[in-house]
Amino acid sequence: MSDLLRIALPKGRLGEKVYQMFDAAGYSCPEILSDTRKLIFENRETGVCFFWVKPSDVAIYVERGAADLGVAGKDILLEYRPEIFELLDLRMGRCRMAVAGKKNFRDDPSKTLRVATKFPNIAGEHYRRQGRDIDIIKLNGSIELAPILDLSDVIVDIVETGKTLLENDLEPFETILPISARLICNRTAYQFRGGEIGAIRSKLKQQVEARA
Ligand code: PRP
Q1: 151 C-alpha to center of ligand 1: Å?
Q2: 144: helix, coil or strand?
Q3: Distance 117 CA to ligand 1 centre (A)
Q4: pTM, rounded to two decimals
Q5: Measuring CA to CA, which residue among 97, 90, 122, 96 is closest to residue 9?
């Protein structure tokens, strides 16, 4: 496996769509979609191998060189600021980072705002820019529960369809950032395997542009 270009894909629906893009670009590995416990899928002809990782772990694999390329959400890149190169906006997995809370919530600027989130750096930066005093409550999932149970006043979280907010009587108040999936690259790999990486990037870019 040592000579193959290693590509970390985010497990789940987004990752499957991203794999289809690699497939269409000529880097196919059909076994990856089969029901198997195998972790690494090689295509010696095209010189690549793929593996699925937890979406929030892709950037770690790429930053540390366990993967040469990967696909990660802009949310993860902004939150953890990994030392990688961002090569391409794949314009998929689109969603937004937003502030949300109970419909009847009214902010009282004289009080510290309690903010529940999985993204303390993004949330912290957002409120620092506004000069707002906040108390960050770091959670790992089901963020929407926090304002409902009065653990927080608001949440800073990903909104995709808006269904989770709607079904829990919450509403978005403000968009912080648009988010989409990015092709990312290990810095050393970019230096030493720039030809192969550049070829993959341009084939994916053609698909992104054809979709626009
Ligand atoms: C994400 C996010 C919201 C939900 C938004 O959660 O944290 O809860 O998706 O999607 P929607 O606007 O389409 O309803 P995820 O499914 O990743 O699970 P989590 O609760 O473990 O964070």
Answers
A1: 18
A2: coil
A3: 12
A4: 0.94
A5: 90
